[in-house]
Amino acid sequence: MQFGHFDDEAREYVIETPHTPYPWINYLGSQEFFGLVSHTGGGYCFYRDAKLRRLTRYRYNNIPVDDGGRYFSINDGGDVWSPSYRPYKTELDFFETRHGMGYTRITGERGGVRASVLLFVPVGINAEVHQVTLTNTSDAAKQFSLFSFLEFNLWNAEDDQTNYQRNLSIGEVEVVDGAIYHKTEYRERRNHYAVYGVNAPVAGFDTDRDTYLGFGNGFHEAAVPHAGKAGNSVASGWYPIASHQLDVALEPGESKQFTFVLGYLENDADDKWESPGVIKKDGARELLARFADNASTDAEFAKLNEYWDNLLGSYTVESGDNELNRMVNIWNQYQCMVTYNMSRSASFFETGMGRGMGFRDSSQDLLGFVHLVPERARERIIDIASTQFEDGSAYHQYQPLTKRGNHTLGSGFNDDPLWLILGVAAYVKETGDFAILDEMVPFDNDESKAATLMEHLRRSFNHPLEKAGPHGLPLIGRADWNDCLNLNCFSTEPGESFQTTGNKTGGVAESVLIAGMFCAIGPEYAALARRRGDEAEAQRAEKAIEDMRAAVANHGWDGEWFRRAYDYYGNVVGGAENEDGQIWIEPQGYCVMGGVGLEDGKAVKALDSVRERLNTPHGIVLLNPAYTEYHVELGEVTSYPPGYKENAGIFCHNNPWVIIAETMVGRAEYAWEYYKQITPAYREEISEVHRLEPYVYAQMIAGKDASRHGEAKNSWLTGTASWNFVAVSQYLLGVRPDYDGLIVDPCIGAEVGEYTVTRQVRGATYKVTVTATGTKGARLTVDGKEIEGNTVPYAPAGSVVEVVASV
Ligand code: BGC
């Protein structure tokens, strides 16, 4: 069952009903100012940091779900409704929400009035624009009132929800010329404020929530829109909001447009007052003036579309498979941008208050983003590396606003260091910018402890070697990629963090996954060292990688698959001898990617075990059999009910590791099948089962042990986006940048038939035509000449290179 359809031409997903199984959302903004908006108008926005600079309020865990957002209400002769359906839930004659690239257009029609709200964040402007188009579709003249509404957050989203004894007294606003200024805490330690204005004379306004809603009312009972008359209220403490009233008259067939702008502004700390107690508003006035006429709004919207045209041009595929085309060309890349911007902070499953940017998460997000805006990837790499410690370990998370590591979580996640190497390697391959390796980068954000980025990578590489256990495998620390495999924590108290509790010392818990990662990612470090002329270091690294492969083969192999770990006591985790959790997905993918067992059949055997034990029609589950009891020595993974999250859920992030591994052993059909299973566009027809957005990946799909098998959770912010983009673009379609050239090595299901990938890299364009045969090992013709191997040498910027791959 579907609730909408893809409009590929417009690069939109069109939701045709308010009644989707869950709020289906979109993101606005691409650089500093961001918003989340659901198809029924719910959501919020913030400047850079969802916790520390939240502009508008949103209530998670609300009843009804997703109530609260930017609402436009119409009172047409006493009939009150909203084009977004919510909050009134008044039935509409027409409803449609189009989520596009950085914008959402919500349209509703009732009683002869069509109202369309276009929400977007203009490129390079710290504001959200709400362009409202009202059309009289009836054959009589219409007069009605339009009310805008949003609720301010008192900046720090966490404090806003907890510190009522203070917060209910501090709310302050100013209203000047119909523009509403939010200035809570501006008098003392803040020099930023928000403004919400509109490019038309207002008939009234409100800034006090109790006046607008009426005390005790829900959004759907809002007093002002029902009365058809604004209260001109000025908030003093309690709950500041912003609402404008516009009186509108429309002849039959006539349309009018209004542009509302919600902006974030900063003043110099020592020059922030216009007069005592009055905010200096030059910035806001300038901002509103930019959107004074609707044509300027249209021009800004056109710029946004151009921005996305350019971004999405660097990798495109044309094939006979529409789902593949739309995922690769549009939605997967779009999601990569969003995850890059948000890390795991703000979604409809992440409150924006809990987590900042993850060291491992952001390093992996780079993989799917680096081709979009390499300069921003460069900056991010430096930010991430600056939170590394001198011993190669790293803060697990940092706050985007301060760029400082989070002390509450600290470090000790022993996979973290390796991901940095992977992100940097992807950046260098994409850009050829080896100079980044010479950048001086601080440790622990302390400039006095700076070293070259290459030195950071050396310490990353050495970290698993220096922290190795009795089998020569890396010690796991608090957890590895699987945050819920906590072999040293032994948490028994409700409410304490599974990861940061205890962390007993003296144990020997080792991770086969980190070992596999070392074998797969380590060669990138060796390659970088060699290209910098440090042959001795390259050879040292290669020797360490060989030793690690041997350690995995000797101690990480269980007979039919790779083991997962050794616990605190040295017992096997993920082996036939275990009752539950006998086989885990992560080491099967990563050890094969790391080249373990490619020659002696272990790799294929491990992947056969995945197929037999872990695969389902909805994706590959994380482990099997699911744990049914809590094991204190294994940690959080065993705390989840069977089939959910890390306990045998389909944790989509690691499915592409198996996809890539399958391409490494040449099994194109399996790789292709695994790709389609979890890719949302192929699941659109079962939206009533999947429940979340059919245009973006979810972190998890309930596994075979769950009663809700096939149901997705945690959409949008997941490393699944970047890893699936890597899997499909680089390994299935088979076009990936390397240090000296573009590798063309397709391995995709025969049903895809003939396709062309257009890839722009380092200023040149490569047109790669392939006929899929379900096998690997294509021979290449470059501009009409056959070449040896599968690397197309980089051509000078501006060239167009024709590549034909045939088996
Ligand atoms: C975290 C990742 C982690 C994954 C698996 C996600 O929620 O953001 O860092 O690798 O879960 O546990």
Please describe what this structure looks like.
- With 807 residues, the chain is of the alpha+beta class.
- It is 28% helix and 26% strand.
- It binds beta-D-glucopyranose (BGC).
- Beta-D-glucopyranose (BGC) binds next to helix 8.
- The site of beta-D-glucopyranose has 9 residues, from helix 8.
Keywords:
single chain; 807 residues; alpha+beta; six-stranded antiparallel sheet; 44 strands; 26% strand; binds beta-D-glucopyranose
Short précis:
This protein is α+β, with helices and mostly antiparallel strands. It has 19 helices and 44 strands. Helix 8 packs parallel to helix 10, helix 9 packs antiparallel against helix 10 and helix 10 runs parallel beside helix 12.
Which ligands are bound?
Answer: beta-D-glucopyranose
- Number of helical stretches of at least 4 residues: 19
- Silhouette: globular
Could you give the order of strands across the largest sheet?
Answer: 1-2-9-10-11-12-19-16-15-14
How far apart the termini lie comes to: 39 Å
Number of strands: 44
Measured on Cα atoms, how large is the radius of gyration?
Answer: 27 Å
Based on helices, strands and strand pairing, what is the structural class? alpha+beta
Largest sheet: 10 strands, antiparallel
